[in-house]
Every structure is written in C-alpha cells, then in structure tokens.
Amino acid sequence: MRVNVTVNGEARSADDVWEGESLLYVLRERLGLPGAKNACEQGECGSCTVYLDDVPVCACLVAAGQVQDREVRTVEGLADGETLDPVQEAFVQAGAVQCGFCTPGLVVAAHDLLRRSPSPDDPEIREALAGNLCRCTGYEKILDAVRLAAAKRGA
Amino acid sequence: MSQPVRTPTDLTSAVAGGVGESPQRPDGNLKVRGEFAYSSDLWHEDMIWGATLRSPHPHARITGVDLTEALKVPGVHAVLTHADVPGANACGVEQRDQPVLAVDVVRYQGEPVALVGADHPETARRAMERIVVDYEVLEPVVDAEAAARGECAPLHASGNVVRHVPVRRGDQSATAEVVVTGRYEVGMQDQAFLGPESGLAVPAEDGGVDLYVATQWLHVDQDQVASALGLPLEKVRLALSGVGGAFGGREDLSMQVHACMLALHTRKPVKMVYNREESFYGHVHRHPAVLHYEHGADRDGKLVYVRAKIYLDGGAYASSTAAVVANAATLGIGPYDVDNVTVDCWGVYTNNPPCGAMRGFGAVQAGFAYESQMDRLAGVLGLDPVEVRLRNAVREGSTMPTGQVIDSAAPVAELLELVRDRPLPAATGGELDLRQMPGGVSNTTHGEGVVRGVGYAVGIKNICFSEGHDDYSTARVRLEVVGGEAAALVQTAACEVGQGLVTVVQQIVRTELGVQRVSVLPMDTSIGNAGSSSASRQTYVTGGAVKSACAAVRARVLELYSRQTGTGPAEVGRLGAELRGGKLVSSHDVLADLADVLGGDAVDETAEWRHRPTEPIDPETGQGNAHVQFGFAAHRAVVDVDVELGLVKVVALDCAQDVGRALNPQAVLGQIQGGSAQGLGLAVMEEIRTKDGKVRNPSFTDYLIPTVLDVPPMGVDVLERADPHAPYGLRGVGEPPTISSTPAIVAAIRAATGLPLTRVPVRPEHITGT
Questions:
Q1: pLDDT tens profile A7-27
Q2: Chain A CB contacts of B436 below 8 Å
Q3: pLDDT per residue over B112-148, tens digit each?
Q4: CATH code of the domain covering residue A61
Q5: Do B673 and A141 count as a contact with CB atoms less than 8 A apart?
Q6: Does A144 touch chain B (CB under 8 A)?
Q7: Chain B closest-CA separation from residue A69 CA (Å)
Q8: Which domains does chain B have, with CATH numbers?
Q9: Closest chain B residue to the Cα of A60, Cα to Cα
Q10: Which domain holds residue A31?
Q11: Contact (Cβ atoms closer than 8 angstroms) between residue A42 and residue A22
Q12: Where do the DSSP E strands lie in B436-535?
C-alpha cells in the first residue's frame, strides 16, 4: 500500500508498504528517519516516541496505515536548523546522554512535558518520563537535563 | 559496490576541556538530534535482510533439516545451514566451543540453526516458518551444582566443568569463636542494553567483507569472523557503528558471522537487526550463582577465616566463564583482610542460556554473598554493620587471599564512613504522594504496613584483564596545522559503547599536546587491537595508549624545533619544553608557535601501550599477582517496604567510590549512578526466569529494568587517591558501583523486615512468605 503522511512539516509518501509494518519501520526504513529508536518494538521502552498529531506515541505500536493523512513530528524535527531545542541542548550539557539509544524518545517525552508543564517538580518529571527506559545513566542526569531545560525555556 | 549510508563519521570537537574537566561529548549533538548512526540504522540501497532460525529446545538432537519450502518463498535469496559455513564452524570469545550454526545437536533454547536472507523482514520470517527441523528432544541439564559434581551427562567432550578455581591461604582448618553460615542465590541478570544486536555486512570486490557492527571488541570479533568465513584477517574488515549500550553483552558474537555468510553467499549487503525477544536469546547473560559461605570470627568481629563454595551456571557454551570464575574466586571474600581462606569456584556447562560477561563479572555474585554474611556476623555479635566491616577492611598494604599485596590506595573504611555519614532522607510522611510510596500510583498503601530500613555494603573489583593476559591497546595521534591552527586527530579501535571514551581521548590529547581541536576517527580494524571495552579498562589502557602516542608526537615536535632553531636536543630537554595552548613553551618562556614549528608537516605517531604485567594464578592454590588494580565502592541504601504486599520502594541509594583520578567528573558520576541502578535492578527486579532450560520472560514486559520511578536520588562521594601505576593515577570506574549496590539494598530490606532474604532479586513473595 501507499502511505501519505506529513513528517516534520513535509509531505512524504512511502510505496509498497506491507500492512503489518509499523510507523517506526516506515520512518526508519522507508523515509530515512532513523532517529526514533527500535529498542523493544513492543511499547515498553519509549525509545521510539514521536508526536502523532501532537500527541506523543510509541511509533512501534502505530500501524503504518493509521498515519495516513496525519502529521508526525520526530526527534529530527525538534531542532531549528543548527539551533538545538532547549531540551536537546540541556541533555548534552547535563551529561544525560551516554549510549544515547534512549535519548530521542526521552527528548520527545521531556519536550512534551515542558509544553504541558513549564516548571515541573521532580515527582512530575519522574511520572512523565516513566515510560522511557534508560539503561546507562540511572536517570539522575536525565532529571538534571529536564530541570535545566525548564530553566532555559523559562529564561 | 556503493557505500552504505548512516555509517560512523569523524567526531570533531573544539570544546575546551582537558583531563579533569567535563567537556561535552563530541557525539552528544548527533545523539540528541536523532542523527547518530547506530548499527540498526545502517542502510544500503541494495540491501536484503537476514534472519536467524533458532532452536525451540534447550537440548535436542537434530535428525533432519528440510529447506525446500523455505526456498520457494518469493523474495528469499538464501537459506543457509552449518553446511554453508565456509571456514571453521566454531566461535567463542575465550574458547571456540560454540558452533556458528548447530550441526547435529542444540544445547540451548535459541541456539542458531539456520539463516534466511530475504527482501523484507517479514519475508524472512515467513521463510523461517517453512524450514522443517526434526528434533529428538533430550533431557536438559539445568542444575549447576550437580553438573559441577559430575552427576550429569557431559554436554561437551571436555565434560561439564569449564573451570574450577581453588584459592587457599593460611590455615585450612582454622576455627573461630563465632561462626555464621549461609547459602545464597543470585538470579540470571540481563545486560538489557537498549540498542539491539544489529549490523550490516557488505561483500567486497576482493572476495572479503566489510562488516559494520555494534560490539565491544572489534579485533576479537574479526578473528572469529575470519576463521568462520575461512578468510585471511585482512579480508574481514570491521567498523564500529553506533553502539546502544553493552555492559558485557556484546563481548561474544551475535549476528556477525551470520550476516557475513549471507552477504558472501548472495553478493548483496545484508542487514540484520534482532528484536527484543531475539536479543534475549542472542547474547550471554550474567551467571546465576549458588554460593555457600562460612565465616569464622572472634568476639570482636575480626574475621578468622572464610570458606566458600561458589557455583556459576555458564549455560551451554563457555563464553567468558573461565575468567568470571577466576574473579569470583579471587575476589570471593570481598575487601576484607582475612588470614585463612578456602574458596572453591566452579563454572559449568548446562543447557541453560549461555552466560558470560556482565558488568561486575563474577564479583557481583560473590559480593551479594560475602556482604550478606558480614551483616549476619554483625547481627550475631550485636555489632553495627558498618563497624564490623571497618574492623576487617583492607587497606593499602593488605594481602589478598591470592597472596597479592594491594599496592595502591584501598580506602575501604573511608568509603564506608562517607556513605554512613551522609544525612538520611526524611521519613515518608506529611502530605500523601502516592508516587513516593511502595506500589506507587497503584494506590496500594497510604503508609500502613510500610517499614523503613537502612543497609550498607562495600565491594571490590579487579580493573583491566588479569591472570597474565597480554592486555594492551593501540592509538594513533596525528598533529598538523588545519586552517592556521594546530589540530589533532586520534584513531583507535577502542569501542565507544556509551561510556564516553571518545570524550576522554579528546581530553587526553588536549592536555598532552596543548591543542583544542581534536577529531576522533571512527573505530575500525585498520588500526591495531585496543582490547575490549570491558573490565573497566578502556580509559586506563586506551587512555594510556593515547597518552603514549601523544608523548611520541611531542618528542617529534621537539625534534622539529631542535632542527629548525639549531637548539641541541639536550638544550631542548633542559628547557623542559611542553606543548600548551597551541605553543611550545618552557617553564617560563614561549619558545615557538606550534603552527610555525609544524609548518606544512604532519606528525603522525602510533603507540602500543600495556599496563604492568600480571601473573597467572597457581591452579592448586589460586596464589599469584593476578590483578593489575583494584577498585572499591560502598553504598548505603534506604528502602520503604510494604510488608503486607512485599513491595519495595528504594528511597535513597548513595555511593562513595575511589576513582584514583576523575578524568571526566561528569562521566564518572554517570558511570557510578548507572552502575548503581543496574545493581538496584538485580536487587529487586531483574531476573531471566527459566524452567527446564527455557526462558519464560524474554521481553521488557516481563523482564523488568528500573524506570525513573524505581531509581531514587543517588548522592555520590568521589575520592581521588591516585594509583601511581596508572595513567594520571586513574582507577577504573564502571564496575565497582554495580557490586555494592545490590547487597546494600537487600540489607536495607532485611533491616526493614527482619527476614533473612538469601536470594536476589528479592520478589514480593519472599517478603510476604506467600
């Protein structure tokens, strides 16, 4: 089947999509956008988090056909050209990135949190990021990054 | 053939930051943008997909394989079996006892049997369903203790004992006034790195293959792949793609040979990516262990003797079991000074999943048992648990059970005092926030039945490879003028797996050569061996190699200066010339601009660097200077336990660790906190559950790793007691925090509940007794 979808503001289409493919597969293997990550492909780790019509979803749990004529925004669509989004900048500065495989999903999840709640307290940050697994950092630096990003956005 | 896309690139950074600072990672921007090229992101316009058919049985004889129907599936390019392995059908990181593809027997559930190459992952899956394998199912060997005693049918020609290491020190029949005994169990932990096993093999025109892959050790992979393909080493070229975590799980081969076989057979680039379930079958795990301990002490709590028998289940193939056994045995009594020691450790073959390297590597299993014993001893004597440890702690100059004298800092007592003296977290109370409660927003308690406990532990880990291993690394450093500015390029084959080695090598070059702009080339096998990114060794060994290459470059620059100015080498030496801030300086003068000295020349030096040698241990007594360095960390854990439901909330997990010298303080904290969190996982969450050799929970739905709600705030005290034998005085950081975290948490749960809790992970039913 053919899938037409707007990705990061651009109209895209993918041909010969097998009906069983996920949005994650289409992004990564057909549209050249491997930023969303394939860590579990069962909706447990959050590494493939993208916005679908402005709502964060696990791209691995969305069937390709479900995105027809809808809007997807991936981690690749967060920066403004060379300028990183404050969340991205904070992740690098705070040391929240080690292997980085969880990072794209966490960046999108944190980005979404700060849109909803510009100055979250720690329990709120933890709750918002609870669907994103990280195996390297123990999360302390990720919490630092979200606090830093909140401060940057507020500045 | 055209080049694949999304392959690794140079990482250039001009961000200031030498040794001791915390500059940003050179790959950080790419990673936050989603543009860093991981091994599962690789792509080639002509590529096909590889897939692996695995055994559903832990132990079976293969009586027939029929590929006919699979080959008929449209879109299938190849279906391969052991008969298609071009070279030696054997691999293994230490012993080559594992077939690339099973021949007539399978020894674990998930063992690779056949390969499919197809135009789409789904096509490959359908073809695999049509491969008919006839199995005669055999009784699996699943009891490691029985295997060690020789009570099971041998799974390999050598028998079922991979290695037995005895350690004998002092009086073997010592007696003591106070004796505590215990039997402990450690469940099978998974590395659960997030980036699945994956890579791309591209057939080359010379008959060889280029393999882009995520691994921990390029050269040991290259050796095994070349041998299995029947190709000379130079025709098997490996390049490191982005690695999504490792923690030991990438020391053994996974898809490396398989993808190359399919690529050479089909003459097409082949991409292989495991999904999470396959990943659980596709790499080795932490050895589950049964540990029997007896500690004898005097009335003051001073240890008189320790006796231990440790059984490590290595599963179907050897992997790194032999080295894990040596660690568990030689570090088996912990960081304590004991004159009389009797330790025996066995690593055995069974039909359970193969086990090998995972962060902590043998020291984790022993650590849970010896620290549980120290608490038991404290309990019997009515001593404070920290106090009993302080009375027995090793220090610099202490002798290990192997006879090895600890010849650099060993501030075990100070680490314990640091965590003990940290302020305790406030009691849960005041306004109810379910998120702070055991059970969380499941709303299982509002504080009723919740008891707080505090526990302590300390651990010891050997740093770098031990037992006489020729442990070295290779680094190339090039210095030249780029755009009017002296800039450096550094190349190694040392795998960046997330730990931040690329940052550290840049810092070392900045410090040694006084330049800001440093580029790190992609890691590949075009340069010499760097050894593995394991054993907390890369900053030590590859850091040492980079420092050494920088010294060679600096010497060449001084030669150039000497020639250009007519200053004799002796005079240059007398000036104490160094490279700083892009200039050649003496102790009080600027001698020259580095860019002027270099002119149009590039100085390019490669160095091989080894740490001081270690010795094998005596096979009868375990005696010998087997280890190059020891690392120590201590933890204090605070937990809230809902004793009615058996739910545990870890409230705080503070750590103190001696790192010798923190080359990058921010990265050091990241290692300590990440390692502590993995220890938390083993304490209360993580276990691969098996039944009759079969894995019951190969998914992140059923194998739980800590989320941000499970991990508490982690305060860290970092000590820097330089080790004079190590580059910059550093001490390996990655593993020690993983060792003491687990027993500290379990000690805290014991303190809260009064239960003995002899097994990790602690599950709710262990607490409720239901």
A1: 999 999 999 999 999 999 999
A2: 123
A3: 999 999 999 999 999 999 999 999 999 999 999 999 9
A4: 3.10.20.30
A5: yes
A6: no
A7: 24
A8: 396-464+619-770 (3.30.365.10), 472-610 (3.30.365.10)
A9: B275
A10: 3-78
A11: no
A12: 450-463, 472-482, 485-492, 518-520
